[in-house]
Specification:
alpha/beta
């Protein structure tokens, strides 16, 4: 059952508020609107990119009916603290997992091996939090610097060296015209400005991984904004 179905079956509807993350695509917020409820954006944990339990608790009102906790990039344990909060506060917690077409055990194991290699060798970027159960659906690093131009310049430079990479979340949902809200989400904003997804899955060879490491480490992770 999808997010809309789970919200409907729980009786969530008009007049209710549902707490959701803004870091990601608009799918979850749109699901909340589809049942007639109002999405309320809460900040994320900067390490797991999942909703931060303290931020969720701060956003709870008398109209809060549910929380949609999304596991990002393969951090399957990232929703645990929100689930515990829901149990304590008597809130429905709907767990939404991003689509992953590669759930084969051998593929997951390969991604984890590749991620471990990158974690050990990358120095020009901040590597992902290495936690138990992380499936590395995406291998997302942080490019340190002074904001979006640094990350984008880094991405362009890495691509010129033959490494495929992508910005996982270009615009947080609370900045989209349909959902624009005056809300303070510092970790969400920082993640949107700094994150970059590097290749980690099949069919990468050891030479491909070495190319990723060489390209990122040569740049040092700090590029001045291009004017």
């Amino acid at each position: 059952m999808g997010t809309i179905g789970m919200l409907k079956s729980a009786g969530v509807g008009i007049g209710d508020e549902v707490i959701v993350p803004a870091y990601g695509n608009a799918e979850v917020a749109e699901a909340v609107l589809a049942v007639g409820a109002m999405p309320v954006f809460a900040d994320i944990d900067g390490a797991t990119y999942c909703l931060d339990a303290a931020a969720v608790e701060a956003a709870v009102t008398t109209r809060t009916a549910a929380v949609v906790a999304v596991s990002r990039f393969g951090y399957l344990a990232g929703v645990r603290s929100v689930r515990e909060l829901g149990q304590r506060r008597g809130l429905l917690v709907v767990e939404h997992r991003e689509e992953d077409d590669s759930r084969e055990p051998s593929v997951l194991a390969q991604r984890q091996v590749h991620a471990a290699y990158l974690n050990r060798r990358l120095t020009g970027v901040r590597t992902p939090e290495d936690c138990v159960g992380h499936t590395y659906q995406q291998y997302v690093v942080r490019v340190p610097g002074n904001g979006r131009p640094d990350r984008d310049a880094f991405a362009r430079a890495v691509r010129r060296k033959g490494v495929d990479c992508q910005v996982p979340v270009k615009t947080p949902v609370h900045r989209l015209p349909a959902f624009q809200r005056a809300v303070c989400l510092p970790e969400t904003e920082r993640a949107a400005d700094e994150t970059l997804a590097l290749p980690v899955g099949h069919p990468l060879s050891r030479r491909d991984l070495q190319r990723v490491v060489a390209a990122c480490n040569a740049l040092g992770g700090l590029l001045q904004p291009a004017f």
